[in-house]
Amino acid sequence: MKFKLLIVFLLIAAYGRAQNLNIIPQPQSVNKQEGQFYLNNSTTVGTTDTSLLALVSYFQKEVHKAKSVALVQNVNGSGSLIDLKLSSNQQTIGAYTLNITPEHITVSSSNKEGVFYGLMSLLQLIKDQQADNDKNICLQACKITDAPRYQWRGLMLDEARHFFGKEKVKQLLDWMAYYKLNKFHWHLTDVQGWRIEIKKYPKLTTIGGMGNYSDTSAEAEYYTQNDIREIVDYAGQRFITVIPEIDMPGHATAANRAYPEYTGGSVAGYPNFTFNPANENTYQYLADIIKETNSLFPAHMIHLGGDEVAYGVKAWSLDTAIARMMQKKNFDGVNQLEQYFFKRMADTVTSLNSKILAWDEATGGSLPPDKTIIFWWRQNLPGQLHLALQKNYQVVLCPRLPLYFDFLQDTGLVAGRNWNGVFNRVTDVYNFPDRQVPADELNSKLIVGVQANIWTETIESEKRLDFMLFPRIAGLAEAAWTLPEQKNELVFADKLKADFKNYDAAGIYYYNPFEPSLHPEVVDFVPRIKLVKARSYVRHASKRRHGKINHNKYASSKKGHKSSKRSHKKRK
Ligand code: ACM
Question: If I label 464, which of 22, 346, 408, 473 is the partner at 20 to 30 A Cα–Cα?
Answer without folding.
Answer: 22
